[in-house]
């Protein structure tokens, strides 16, 4: 099972913990260097706390995996594959179309169509080598489409991770950031459960508890050794397996990346290979995730898998909103809004906690399709309780949890109350409908045939 840095929380911790902590410490009169060091201690302490939370939650993962319908587990991953792993890299491909399209074509030819290249050359290696060569040959002439950057110069260094207890200095100060950090821990645990199910469907039946304990321990080790970014199991294990990767690949990758961090050559490689050349590999992983979700789940659950896509699409739009609307301006814009629940606020709320939201949406719809209305109502009740406190659908642009009456804007306060009420009303409606004779009958046989179950 591949393991690495969790991208959303790496960015999130910088925005909601490290940045605010540094600004706050300087505002208190602390010198910039001292404020930076204390911010580092706070970041380390936050990682340790996240690691402890994940350690406790690890023992619940197997139970969740057994209880939640497969459409919820795999559908949430498929949504990430569509919006974040697939679409975003596609922009990089067409940002330098000549180079990116050649690399994408080689990946599709070899890995998707499964046609061997001459001399059985690996498709990924060919795509990277040919794409990178084209970039540096055509770039100086302005033919690559994007901004050309010449060959980077190697800038190696030595930095060995050493265990330290310096996080203790930032532990008390980090406690006030715990409500912001806890959702990141929860989301990686949910993601770990989902990718373990994805691996199981592909033939690798890992024990969920062991996978979650591994990521928890890795996060604790990172915090103790000065890290401020948590670890998580990576999506796409079936795709790596399809490319021929096995346990040795994961070990070699860990050694290569580990030494690269210590010696500094990872940064050099990242600058050396254009993003448009690497992006097609992610697109292949995204395709594999999306296809697996539909093929592995019962055909009648296809609508539930597709429904689980929407929270990740909302998250993608919220990320794009964030490019133009900084978090500190968001509340000010809401205060000036005249209509109730502006589209930007609803989009941000739908996107916050997207992994957990997608899993629960897919689960409640799968149970509804199977005519288990009481179970469907139970998932809606969970969605309601999570919405009220901002675990999902947080009205804060930072995605943190809260007590809803403490939110600054009246429009923001409307999100937890109205979303929660909506889920509760829907749950009550399904409970009442569960008393009908129709709801207790077996699902129609035509639901087993894709495209037939949804009628207009």
Short description:
The protein is mainly α and 456 residues long. The protein has 2 domains: 3-290, no CATH class; 300-445, no CATH class.
How would you summarize the topology of this molecule?
Elements: E1 3-5, H1 7-27, H2 32-57, H3 61-67, H4 70-95, H5 97-112, H6 123-138, H7 171-174, H8 178-201, H9 208-224, E2 231-233, H10 237-242, H11 247-263, H12 265-272, H13 275-296, H14 302-307, H15 310-324, H16 327-336, H17 343-351, H18 354-369, H19 373-388, H20 410-433
Antiparallel strand pairs: 1-2
Helix pairs in contact: 1-2, 2-8, 2-9, 3-8, 4-5, 4-8, 4-13, 4-15, 4-18, 5-6, 5-13, 6-13, 8-9, 15-17, 15-18, 18-19, 19-20
Instruction: Give me the secondary-structure category.
Output: mainly alpha
Q: Note the run of SSEs as H and E.
A: EHHHHHHHHHEHHHHHHHHHHH
Q: State the distance separating the first and last CA atoms.
A: 42 Å
Rg measurement, Å:
23 Å
The spatial strand order of the largest sheet comes to 1-2
Counting DSSP H or I runs of 4 or more residues, the number of helices is 20
Work out the count of structural domains: 2
Q: How many DSSP E strands?
A: 2
The parts where pLDDT drops under 50 for at least 5 residues are 452-456
Relative helix content: 55-70%
Main sheet summary: 2 strands, antiparallel
- Anisotropy-based shape: globular
- Beta-strand proportion: under 5%
Mean residue pLDDT:
87
């Amino acid at each position: 099972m591949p393991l690495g840095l969790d991208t959303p929380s790496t960015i999130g911790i910088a925005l909601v913990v490290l940045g605010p902590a540094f600004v706050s410490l300087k505002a208190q009169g602390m010198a910039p260097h001292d404020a930076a060091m204390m911010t580092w201690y706070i970041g380390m302490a936050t990682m340790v706390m996240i690691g402890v939370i994940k350690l406790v939650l690890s023992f619940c993962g197997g139970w969740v995996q057994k209880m939640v319908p497969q459409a919820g587990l795999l559908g949430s991953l498929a949504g990430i594959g569509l919006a974040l792993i697939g679409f975003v890299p596609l922009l990089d491909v067409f940002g330098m179309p000549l180079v990116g399209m050649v690399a994408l074509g080689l990946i599709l030819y070899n890995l998707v169509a499964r046609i061997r290249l001459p001399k059985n050359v690996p498709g990924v290696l060919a795509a990277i080598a040919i794409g990178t060569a084209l970039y540096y040959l055509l770039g100086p002439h302005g033919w690559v489409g994007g901004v050309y950057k010449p060959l980077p110069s190697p800038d190696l260094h030595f930095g060995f991770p050493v265990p330290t207890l310096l996080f203790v200095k930032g532990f008390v100060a980090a406690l006030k950031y715990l409500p912001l950090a806890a959702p990141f821990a929860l989301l990686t645990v949910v993601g770990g459960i989902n990718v373990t199910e994805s691996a199981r469907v592909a033939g690798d039946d890992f024990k969920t508890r062991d996978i979650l304990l591994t990521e928890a321990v890795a996060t604790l080790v990172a915090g103790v050794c000065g890290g401020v970014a948590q670890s998580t199991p990576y999506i796409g294990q079936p795709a790596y397996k399809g490319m021929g990767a096995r346990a040795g690949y994961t070990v070699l990758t860990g050694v290569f990346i580990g030494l690269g961090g210590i010696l500094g050559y990872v940064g050099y490689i990242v600058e050396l290979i254009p993003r448009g050349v690497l992006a097609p590999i992610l697109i292949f992983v995204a395709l594999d995730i999306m296809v697996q979700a539909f093929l592995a789940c019962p055909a009648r659950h296809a609508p539930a898998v597709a429904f689980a896509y929407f929270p990740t699409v909302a998250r993608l739009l919220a990320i794009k909103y964030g490019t133009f609307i900084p978090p500190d301006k968001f509340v000010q814009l809401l205060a000036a809004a005249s209509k109730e629940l502006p589209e930007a606020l609803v989009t941000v709320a739908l996107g916050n906690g997207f992994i957990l939201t997608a899993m629960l949406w897919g689960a409640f719809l799968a149970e509804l399709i199977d005519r288990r209305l009481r179970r469907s109502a139970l998932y809606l009740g969970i969605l309601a309780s999570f919405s009220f406190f901002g675990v999902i659908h947080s009205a804060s642009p930072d995605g943190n949890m809260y007590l809803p009456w403490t939110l600054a804007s009246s429009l923001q306060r409307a999100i937890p109350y109205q979303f929660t009420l909506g889920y509760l009303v829907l749950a009550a409606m399904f409970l009442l409908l569960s008393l009908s004779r129709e709801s207790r009958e077996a699902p129609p046989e035509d639901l087993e045939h894709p495209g037939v179950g949804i009628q207009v």
